[in-house]
Design goal:
The chain is of the alpha+beta class. It contains 5 helices and 5 strands.
Length: about 180
């Protein structure tokens, strides 16, 4: 369960770390992609049939909410995170987590190109030189006053190198992650 929580924290760091991404590089490398394949029984958010790279001129908040829409639609991630799991046996949680992991992993694969911030091996010695980007490398522990900093790489970090979202159409409230359902 500890690894699952760490994975969610890492995902949210990537999702909310838009300033870590070089926007000019994203614009230069952005390309149209095919929309995700619809699966029977999955909730669907309205969208055009074409798909384009995310519009970097729109507020980042819209993109973050749309990522939540995809994670909820495909993996029911918000339902899982908002529900108390205290009363469920570990075996039942494990089964649910496997499916959520697979479905949300598919969303990441289809809509984001995520790569490590540092191409190094976790647990090994690493040197951080003068002029490093503090938004991309976090120094912890007893940090000396002056670089270079030598330590152990605990996490190589993640960055969103490319982001591709299907185009949305119609009058859609960008704050709605999933519509309420009323059965008649």
């Amino acid at each position: 369960m500890k690894n699952l929580i760490a994975a969610f924290k890492a995902f949210w760091l990537v999702l909310t770390g838009a300033d870590l991404v070089d926007r000019q590089e994203l614009e230069a490398t952005a390309e149209p992609v095919a929309p995700p394949t619809d699966q029977p029984g999955k909730d669907k958010a309205p969208r055009d049939e074409k798909s384009v790279a995310v519009d970097l001129d729109k507020p980042f908040q819209d993109g973050a909410v749309y990522a939540l829409i995809l994670l909820q639609r495909e993996g029911r991630l918000i339902d899982f995170l908002k529900e108390s799991i205290e009363d469920y046996p570990d075996e039942q949680i494990g089964t649910a987590v496997r499916q959520i992991h697979a479905d949300c992993g598919k969303v990441l694969t289809e809509n984001f190109h995520i790569e490590p911030v540092l191409e190094a091996i976790e647990g090994e010695s690493f040197q951080v030189t003068d002029g490093f980007d503090p938004s991309a490398v976090k120094l912890t522990g007893n940090v000396p006053k002056e670089p270079p900093y030598s330590g152990i790489l605990r996490h190589k970090g993640w960055k969103a190198a490319k982001i591709h979202f299907p185009t949305r159409s119609g009058k859609i409230d960008p704050a709605i992650i999933q519509a309420a359902e009323v059965e008649m």
